[in-house]
From TrEMBL:
<dbReference type="InterPro" id="IPR011006">
    <property type="entry name" value="CheY-like_superfamily"/>
</dbReference>
<dbReference type="InterPro" id="IPR036388">
    <property type="entry name" value="WH-like_DNA-bd_sf"/>
</dbReference>
<feature type="domain" description="ANTAR">
    <location>
        <begin position="13"/>
        <end position="74"/>
    </location>
</feature>
<dbReference type="Pfam" id="PF03861">
    <property type="entry name" value="ANTAR"/>
</dbReference>
<dbReference type="InterPro" id="IPR005561">
    <property type="entry name" value="ANTAR"/>
</dbReference>
<protein>
    <submittedName>
        <fullName>ANTAR domain protein</fullName>
    </submittedName>
</protein>
């Protein structure tokens, strides 16, 4: 029979192992997303923040998890195939990111302009 303190230690070790596994998965997912952003910015001639915006847009408008969109984009050059839903969403996502950046720049100019003494 396991003593109560041994059981608590075992549960704590298990919880820590689960946390380490989750952190490892998060690191892999983060690296994959970063690589996908690189694909999008290269393809669309975007800045990194625009690449992130395009990736989010594709995920939201295709109902495909972000890490799955990222995986497909990163594997695209080697597989020479992109799932149809992502292939169709990619141009719109790039244009959305460009438009979002232009809108943000316009908003920034308006805020700076309104802060000046008249």
């Amino acid at each position: 029979m396991i003593a109560p303190d041994e059981q608590a230690d075992h549960e704590q070790v298990k919880a820590l192992q689960d946390e380490v596994d989750q952190l490892r998965q998060a690191l892999v997912s983060h690296a994959l997303v970063d690589q996908a952003i690189g694909v999008v910015i290269t393809l669309g001639g975007l800045r990194p923040e625009q690449g992130w915006e395009a990736l989010k847009h594709m995920s939201q408008h295709t109902n495909v998890k972000l890490r799955e969109v990222a995986r497909c984009l990163v594997e695209w050059p080697a597989r020479r195939k992109l799932p149809e839903v992502i292939r169709r969403a990619l141009p719109a996502a790039v244009e959305h990111a460009r438009g979002q950046a232009a809108a943000d720049a316009w908003k920034d100019r308006q805020e700076v302009g309104s802060g000046r003494p008249g």
